[in-house]
Structures are given as C-alpha cells and as structure tokens.
Amino acid sequence: MSLPGFFHSWPGLYVAQAFFHSLVAAIVAEIAIKAWNVRDPAVRQRVFLVPIVVPVFLFPLCRLFRPDRGSAHFRLGTIFDSGRWLELETLGIHPAMAGLAVVFTITSLVFLFQELIPILRHSFEGGTPGKAACKVDRLEDPGIRTATGTLPVVPAVFVVEDDDPLICSTTGKSAAVYVSSSLVATLPEEELRSAIAHEISHVVRSRHPMLVGAYLLRALMFFNPVVLMEFRRAAQEEEKVCDAFAVSITGNRRGLVQALRKLYLPPEEPPPPRGRRTRKTAKEIEERSHRLNIESRISRLESGDDHDSGIRWMVPAAVTVATVLIDYFVT
To answer: Which of 18, 116, 144, 161 could share a disulfide with 55, CB 3.0–4.6 Å?
Structure first.
C-alpha cells in the first residue's frame, strides 16, 4: 500500500490524528502545569496521562457524534486540518506523510526493543533476579528483619548475595523486594528501611487500576512519539509518588535522601581537558538524565513539599476538558 493510500484509510487517519491530538494535549498539559505551578507528583502524573488516554478514544468518538468530520464544510471551520499538510506534494512525494511514517516507525522500534521485549523476557524468566537461587528470606537476615519490623506493609523481601549495593522489586503474582547483601551491610538501619519502603510502594501501586490501564493504552499508542515522552515523564513522577509513600510509612525523609545519594549518586568524574573533549555518547546522556532525575527527587524530599489535595483532580479534569474541546476542531 502506498503512503497516500495508508493515510487515507481508517487506520492511517487514526494514527495521524491520534498524533496531532496527543500533541495538542501535551501542550495544554504543559501550560496547565506552568500556570498552576503544579508540584504535587500525583497531580503531575495524572496531567501527563491525559495525552496518553485522550487520543485513544477521541478519533472514534468524534466520528461517532459527527460523521461529517471529513467533509469539506467541517474542515473549513477547523483549527488545524492535518489533511492539508499531508496532501502537500513535492517532486512526486508527500514529505509530511513520509516524515510521519519515519517518526512512527522509529517510535515503534523504540517501544519494541526498549519496552516490549524486556517485559516479555522478564516475564519468561519468572520475574526474579538472575541470582535468585542464592536468595535468603528476610526473616533469616537480622539486618532486614530489624529494618522491616516497623513497616505496616511488608511483601516478600529477599536478600541476594551480591557485592554491588542493589535493590529492586518485582510485581505481579510473585511480587517481592530483592536487596543485595552488600546493601544490607552498607546502609544504616534507617536508610535501609526507607529504601525498602520505596520498593514496597512500587509493589503496592503496581496494582493500581489507573496505572495498569495507562500502560495498556500506552502500548496501544506504541507508534506515537508524544505518548512515549509523556509516559516516561509520568514514570518519573511515579518515583516521586513512591518517595512520598515511603516517607508516609517511615516518617523519615532524611533516611530516604541519604539512601538515594548512596545508591544512585556516585561522585561525578571531572570533565576532560578542553583539547580532549569529545561528543557525549548515548550512554553518557542517559546517565546524566538519570542523575538529574535523582537530584530532582532529593530536592523535593529536602524541600518537604506536601500534596495539594485541593487541585488533585481539578487540574487533570481541566486539562482533559480543554484538550477535548480543542482537539474536536483538529482533524
């Protein structure tokens, strides 16, 4: 099938308009966060989910209520008519169609190799770390037993023999927290308790229907780069939500801050001399981005920002309504 044939078909119309609808939603979401100065990570996460959820349903619903959306009469009154740009032809090709096709292909490959394949591999491996054969139940380790003794919610916690300071959690039917023996020996009791509490929050929140539904819809929008970016921003806010959850059950901000510093903020290497400066690799960029995210989490914990329950649902609702009203006139 040719590119014009695809973008004139129902699947092509859906993916193209879903992209533009999500782009509008992302702009509205960013404006709302800046205008209301939204700092609560739970609220920010819901706002970032709007560009993921709305485009999935908007195209078929608009077609259902206005079957004439594709007519020339309706398109003349729209804010943005994607068809006008997609139909532009230069030297026998449609550059806008070709550009969208390339973007959708790259985004689909990113989703396949960075998300779908790792998830499938993780599922087939049983959802436990590679050294799970050497794991020890928390009740058999005095350090873990003491650190988790005062926590109100404690799933299965295992100690894995490893020389690196590591901690992670798995979800699903075999939900558990895995802590390396090195971490148990390195962190003081309060910091170890805070680190475990953070992972426990991931286990508890993994069953949240909103998050499960959001990931399924994100998977449905696997081709959409805007959805990819907004989902990753929502995932970053999830870490801050889990930080708040951990503090709520331990009552210890400082313990979590110190644990984050020791786990994820090694001393930065000095920059190379000017004459030897080279381009940053993809790995270096990713590590820098990860470091900035950790520093942002630490800054929030140290500032003591509280949740603002007054805007918890007001801002996401306002963003949703504004997005639907604007996207109605985007075809």
So the answer is: 18
